[in-house]
């Protein structure tokens, strides 16, 4: 290998300097230069200049130093990216150049220390890697901290390792605490490796482990080898955890300890309930309307642990035993568990009968339970609450059936199908009694609810017809009545043939009013009066009365008052008029309050997707008037905020109280109340603002010019991309009462503020001396004042966006972004940043908010060690979803489906449809989606633009598409628009068009997006202004629109003067070869003669090297989602390339 190849190989071993690896880079540089004997210039200062009297040794030393210095500079610069190299002052000596780099990145050591320490304390061993390698990785982090002058002792490292081990190592941790007082790291590694091998062996020898009941999870527990548990098959089992137990109780005196085989004893912490340990049963009926096949009763069995229920329709109560046998055989076989106990009331079908002597004669059901060893549990007479699980379940079922039938047009004889559907649904939705759904606890699988539909809705179904002919009707108009019990399909009722059939091929029509009438029908679904032997207590013996008793009805279920034990119940006849009998005065006893802990209906960590409501469910609004403030629960805080505002007015001398001149009408004023929230939605400040009613001002009299100091969103995102790339400091400030900082030129009179009128001079008015919020000229006055102040401090205005200011101080710089009274500061130097903040605070009443984290409703997340910055609107999206009743909606895969089209035919056609559509806040929904699209979501730009075209006359189809976008935002609300540090900083554009995509005007849709630092900084989806005659023409028009905005972006970034390479042509990619060639070709053709001359400016821009139109494959065209719907897989790939990723990818 020659010397050149050797040098090249060694240089390639040096990692590229990226801002976070300075120490590693410096170490490699010194090693490489030392190996090549080129480090002389780094070790020694430059020798004195040679003279005619210099010796040969001095000349040799100078020659060696110069060669070392020259080679060292070239090698170091070769491994530094252009963006970083341009920010480092030029040096002629290698040693000074290395010192400049060290000074540049010295501030990163604190961040690197924090990052490494955070990673070290949060590490957790998950069992995937080798435990020796895992501990060595932690040891390496400690070594890196030591190099950063933060030394952790070996004892601390040992404790950190132990803390990070999972629960399987719990006995090992106990052994550590009880054996040696102090362990070395090598001893810990050896013991951990031995423990890991033992755990692996126990997994293989499964006979040494006791399995837990199905329906819940449990961690492995390590039991000392000299102690064992005896499993004799008894009804009481032992578990090392309370997981899986529905509820528990404390042990009694005789249950406090368990003795094991060698005489040791273990303490019992609690006694819990698990699956199939207790089942509750209940029979309801008879009902006056039999089901379609004659059943008049239903019986339910509910597992007390999981709340999973079974329901059977029966003709007579005597069938309960046969049904229970089928139920028992199925569940015991499926779960490999035995039913331990059955709880029921004392009905004859369960309990049996009493003879005349008072002895119980067990019925067939009770005898069967005794034969199977199942413990029967009966409620006491008159206390149905003791069987509360079954009682409440049946009450819920009755309410659901009544609601389902009343909202449909189906006959009441289908109550059997309705109640089976109700049980099916209850098994799959959360219950306040259990942490998960009953289905998940019963089967250990999460239920799917995507296939659920509205019971009783009209359906066009296609049944299986083996003898179907070509001209026969393919579908049947029917109604959905349930789910197939043993197949994946649905059950339908055909009213024309009064028959049922099952199929999975159907179209559900769930968007129409099902009842077909203005008011819901009343469903009389009551149990009939039945003969039940009633037990009464009197004179020391039990008597039986064969009386007719009214059983609880479905439509009116009320709590029965408790009857004192000594009271005798007289027979009550059905048709006999009941009169209230006089009673003895009773002593009033205070009601006993329940001490039971109230549990929430749905646990906090549970997510279920319910059908969204189509009405406004907005968050609690802020008060809109002073009267509402006085009635508010936070009235003291609002009034305090009003006083602070009035103090600011007084301190700034905003007005003088004067008499109103004759012929002059004062403008009004109003209080505006707003709660300011942080990124998590928590209230941080109650803000009251006094605003003038500027809408009553007259142009030319009360004001002359207006201007609002608002930076564009594109400018904001470009600044954020530069912050991520250059690792700039990013801080935020707020100007208090910004509009009060400048005098006004016009004479304006205003009425006195409500609730703060002067007691002595209520007839006077306010003559305004300074601008106030609400005045037409207030924004312009504030901007003029701020511009004068900030330019006097050395800031230069960006001529492309006048609300962006830049200041240089040597190699340091700071960027200021102004958005009315919110200020962002991005600086390469902390000292310059604080100097600017001190200056602003001296000129205005400022509030320093520190590091920017929440700006204009946008959350800013940073991982400075990885050079990543993310923009998120999760809080805003949550508020939008809540406002439109979509907080619990099912997440959508894409905002628009492939092939979806919009047209005027979907708009409203008559007054009835318009009146119906008034219920839905379509315009408000589209406006809310528009702000999310403008700020951080280019992925919904196309569909939001399409929805906006029909704001004047939206139809039901448009409303459904808007809800689909909200479902998509539900899935992606945790996603962020991200920017990353890159080796090359360049703006790259992508454009696309959808030829003749508008069905109404046949115009095409243009879409473009510009990328910087790995994320989108600008995008647009818009309908073209004229009809294109070909795909090439449509694409060329899109080139014109994209190049217009590309030139603006290029000029803006050029004004910043901190991005290298921006002067070269701006590259814009398109996937139409003909459009690319036409932009570069000066020749005309018959197919392009009609193209408007204004679009031909694209050719001029290409020739003048302002832009460059390049062809790429359609698969790489990330602007595709801005012009049309795409398949989910392709769509997600393009969205990822836009820089939209999940928050975990930013914060991990």
UniProtKB/TrEMBL annotation:
Biological process, per Gene Ontology: DNA integration
Ranges that cross the membrane: none
Keywords: Hydrolase, Metal-binding
Residue ranges annotated for the Integrase catalytic domain, each copy included: 265-446
Family matches, as Gene3D superfamilies: Ribonuclease H-like superfamily/Ribonuclease H
Keyword Hydrolase: yes
Keyword Nucleotide-binding carried by entry: no
UniProt-recorded name of the protein: Retrovirus-related Pol polyprotein from transposon TNT 1-94
Organism of derivation: Vitis vinifera
């Amino acid at each position: 290998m020659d010397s050149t190849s050797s040098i090249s190989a060694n240089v390639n071993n040096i990692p590229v300097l990226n801002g976070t690896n300075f120490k590693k880079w410096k170490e490699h540089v010194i090693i490489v230069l030392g190996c090549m004997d080129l480090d002389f210039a780094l070790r020694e200062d430059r020798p004195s200049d040679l003279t005619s009297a210099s010796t040969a040794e001095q000349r040799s030393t100078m020659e060696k130093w110069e060669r070392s210095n020259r080679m060292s500079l070239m090698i170091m610069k070769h491994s530094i990216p252009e963006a970083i190299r341009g920010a480092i002052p030029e040096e002629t000596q290698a040693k000074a150049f290395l010192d400049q780099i060290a000074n540049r990145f010295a501030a990163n050591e604190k961040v690197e220390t924090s990052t490494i320490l955070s990673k070290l304390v949060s590490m957790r061993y998950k069992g995937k890697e080798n435990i020796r390698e895992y501990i060595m990785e932690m040891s390496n982090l400690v070594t890196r901290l030591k190099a950063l002058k933060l030394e952790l002792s070996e004892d601390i490292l040992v404790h950190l390792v132990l803390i990070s081990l999972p629960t399987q190592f719990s006995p090992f941790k106990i052994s550590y605490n009880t054996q040696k007082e102090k362990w070395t790291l090598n001893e810990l590694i050896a013991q951990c490796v031995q423990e890991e091998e033992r755990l692996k062996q126990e997994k293989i020898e499964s006979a040494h482990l006791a399995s837990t009941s199905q329906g819940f999870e449990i961690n492995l527990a390590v039991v000392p080898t000299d102690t064992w548990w005896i499993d004799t098959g008894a009804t009481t089992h032992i578990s090392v955890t309370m997981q899986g137990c529905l509820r528990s109780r404390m042990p009694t005196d005789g249950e406090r300890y368990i003795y094991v085989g060698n005489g040791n004893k273990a303490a019992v912490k609690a006694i819990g309930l698990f699956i199939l340990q207790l089942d509750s049963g209940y029979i309801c009926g008879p009902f006056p309307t039999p089901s379609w096949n004659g059943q008049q009763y239903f019986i339910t069995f509910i597992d007390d642990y999981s709340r999973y229920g079974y329901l059977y329709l029966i003709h007579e109560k005597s069938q309960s035993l046969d049904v229970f046998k089928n139920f028992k055989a199925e569940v015991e076989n499926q779960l490999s568990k035995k039913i331990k106990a059955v709880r029921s009331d004392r009905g004859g079908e369960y309990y049996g009968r009493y003879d005349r002597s008072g002895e119980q004669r067990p019925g067939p059901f009770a005898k069967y339970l005794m034969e199977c060893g199942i413990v029967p549990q009966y409620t006491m007479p008159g206390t149905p609450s003791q069987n509360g699980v079954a009682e409440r379940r049946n009450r819920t079922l009755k309410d659901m059936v009544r609601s389902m039938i009343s909202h449909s047009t189906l006959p009441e004889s289908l109550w059997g199908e309705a109640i089976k559907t109700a049980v099916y649904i209850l098994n799959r939705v959360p219950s306040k009694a259990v942490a998960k759904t009953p289905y998940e606890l019963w089967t250990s699988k999460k239920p799917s609810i995507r296939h659920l539909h509205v019971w009783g809705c009209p359906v066009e179904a296609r049944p299986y017809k083996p003898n179907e002919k070509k001209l026969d009707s393919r579908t049947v108009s029917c109604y959905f009545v349930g789910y197939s019990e043993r197949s994946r399909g649905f059950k339908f009722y055909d009213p024309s043939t009064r028959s049922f059939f099952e199929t999975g091929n159907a179209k559900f029509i769930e968007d129409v009013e099902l009842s077909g009438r203005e008011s819901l029908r009343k469903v009389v679904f009551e149990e009939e009066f039945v003969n039940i032997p009633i037990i009464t207590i009197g004179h020391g013996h039990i008597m039986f009365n064969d009386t007719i008793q009214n059983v609880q009805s479905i439509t009116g279920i009320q709590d029965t008052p408790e009857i004192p034990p000594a009271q005798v119940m007289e027979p009550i006849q059905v048709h006999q008029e009941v009169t209230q009998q006089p009673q003895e005065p009773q002593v009033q006893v205070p009601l006993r309050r329940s001490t039971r802990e109230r549990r929430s209906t749905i646990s906090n960590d549970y997510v279920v997707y319910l059908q969204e409501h189509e009405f406004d469910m907005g968050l609690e609004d802020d008060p809109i008037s002073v009267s509402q403030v006085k009635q508010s629960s936070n009235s003291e805080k609002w009034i305090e905020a009003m006083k602070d505002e009035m103090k600011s007015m007084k301190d700034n001398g905003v007005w003088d109280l004067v008499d109103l001149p004759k012929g002059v009408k004062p403008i009004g004023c109003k209080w505006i109340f707003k709660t300011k929230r942080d990124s998590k939605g928590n209230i941080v400040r109650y803000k009251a603002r006094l605003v003038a009613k500027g809408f009553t001002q007259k142009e030319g009299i009360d004001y002359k010019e207006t201007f609002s100091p608002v930076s564009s969103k594109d400018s904001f995102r470009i600044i954020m991309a530069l912050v991520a790339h250059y690792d700039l400091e990013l801080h935020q400030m707020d100007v208090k009462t910004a509009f009060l900082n400048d005098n006004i030129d016009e004479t304006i009179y205003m009425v006195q503020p409500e609730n703060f009128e002067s007691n002595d001079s209520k007839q006077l008015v306010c003559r305004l001396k300074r601008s106030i919020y609400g005045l037409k000229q207030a924004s312009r006055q504030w901007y003029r004042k701020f511009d004068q102040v900030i330019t006097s401090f050395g800031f230069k205005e960006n001529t492309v966006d006048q609300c962006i200011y830049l200041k240089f101080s040597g190699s340091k710089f700071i960027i200021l972004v102004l958005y009315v009274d919110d200020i962002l500061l991005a600086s390469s130097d902390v000292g310059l940043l604080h100097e600017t903040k001190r200056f602003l605070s001296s000129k205005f009443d400022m509030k320093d908010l520190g590091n920017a984290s929440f700006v204009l409703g946008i959350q800013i997340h940073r991982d400075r060690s990885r050079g990543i910055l993310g923009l998120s609107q999760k809080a805003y999206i949550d508020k939008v979803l809540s406002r439109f009743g979509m907080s619990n909606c099912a997440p959508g895969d894409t905002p628009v489906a492939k092939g979806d089209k919009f047209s005027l035919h979907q708009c409203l056609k008559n007054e009835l449809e318009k009146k119906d559509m008034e219920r839905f806040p379509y315009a408000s929904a589209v406006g809310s989606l528009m702000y999310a699209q403008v700020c951080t979501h280019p992925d919904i730009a196309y569909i939001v633009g399409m929805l906006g075209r029909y704001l004047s006359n939206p139809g039901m189809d448009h409303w459904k598409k808007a809800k689909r976008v909200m479902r998509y935002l539900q899935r992606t609300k945790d996603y962020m628009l991200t920017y990353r540090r890159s080796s090359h900083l360049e703006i790259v554009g992508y454009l696309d068009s959808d030829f003749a995509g508008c069905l109404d005007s046949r115009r095409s849709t243009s879409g473009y997006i510009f990328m910087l630092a790995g994320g989108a900084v600008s995008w647009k989806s818009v309908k073209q202004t004229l009809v294109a005659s070909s795909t090439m023409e449509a694409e060329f028009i899109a080139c014109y629109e994209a190049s217009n905005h590309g030139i603006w972006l290029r000029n803006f970034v050029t004004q910043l003067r901190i991005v290298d390479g921006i002067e070269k042509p701006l590259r814009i990619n398109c996937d139409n070869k003909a459009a690319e060639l036409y932009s570069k070709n000066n020749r005309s053709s018959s197919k392009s003669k009609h193209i408007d001359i204004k679009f031909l400016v694209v050719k001029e821009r290409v020739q003048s090297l302002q832009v460059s139109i390049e062809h790429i494959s359609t698969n790489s065209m990330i602007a595709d989602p801005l012009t049309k719907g795409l398949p989910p897989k392709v769509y997600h790939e393009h969205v990822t390339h836009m820089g939209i990723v999940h928050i975990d990818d930013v914060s991990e």
